[in-house]
Design goal:
The protein is an alpha+beta fold and 289 residues long. The chain folds into 2 domains: 2-115 and 271-281, Diaminopimelate Epimerase, Chain A, domain 1, CATH 3.10.310.10; 125-266, Diaminopimelate Epimerase, Chain A, domain 1 (Roll), CATH 3.10.310. The protein is 19% helix and 38% strand. The chain has helices spanning 32-42, 75-87, 131-141, 168-173, 223-235; strands at 2-10, 19-24, 47-51, 60-66, 69-71, 97-102, 105-111, 116-119, 125-128, 148-155, 161-165, 189-194, 203-210, 216-219, 243-247, 255-262, 265-270, 272-281. It has an 18-stranded mixed β-sheet that branches. The radius of gyration is 18 Å and the shape is globular. This is PhzF family phenazine biosynthesis protein.
Length: 289
Amino acid sequence: MLKPFRQVDVFGDGAFMGNPVAVIAEAEGLSDDEMRAISRWTNLSECTFLLPPSTPEADYRVRIFALDKELPFAGHPTLGSARAWLDLGHEPRSAGVVVQECGVGLVPVHLGEQALYFGAPGLVRSGPIPKAAREMLTEALGVTAEQVVDAAWVDNGPGWVAVLLDSVQTVLAVTPDLTRITDPEYRHLGVVALQPEEAETDLEVRAFFPDDAGALREDPVTGSLNASVAQWLEYSGKMSPPYVASQGTVLQRRGRIHVEGEGEALWVGGRAEVVVSGTIDVGEPSASV
């Protein structure tokens, strides 16, 4: 059975400089196992499946998979799914805003002239991490205690914990050792640093997570982490929007994430370009969703 397929490059500052997401539309009839199998096969950090909404307030419903794991929310899949949905010829119920239904509820996506912006969802877990966890992450990152400025939960669904380091150079040099993160709760790890005033961007971000085999992967550009880090930096008084974050530098990407707004009205955005368009043969469905 053929389903509409799009691959979207999200947050890139230039062609093939962002984070790709695979989007399968008209996903009714696919079982959970079939979605996981397709997600693993794409071998991208996330793969999404578009479905009819279950509420009249939404334009569509999306299920988001990170290889084998289903996520209630993720940032670049949100923008990529919205771009794919629009590319398939759909029109939002409200002009200029697409409303996505996902595991965290309804997420608005603002349609800008050059970029898409999602409304940052609230944190489901926040606050400082325990001293023992901070020491564990310090050792896993291969940095000194003096290089760690702060560390906190910044979880808006995927399970992020963030560590603020003393410099961009320190962030770009870290090579995390996943074996030293003995508590699996802390294995979705964001590492950030404020840029110097003369830099092109304001914040440097890296994101790490384990794959299905337990190996560490680095995400090229991560919308959900940037959203939650923005909330953390603002309420802790370290940085306030508007600003631009860079991510993917070590992976030779040029991710640019634009953060605007304040408080509970933060918007996180960037470019989202369809780079692959066609169909995918998903076989014969075995169960409905």
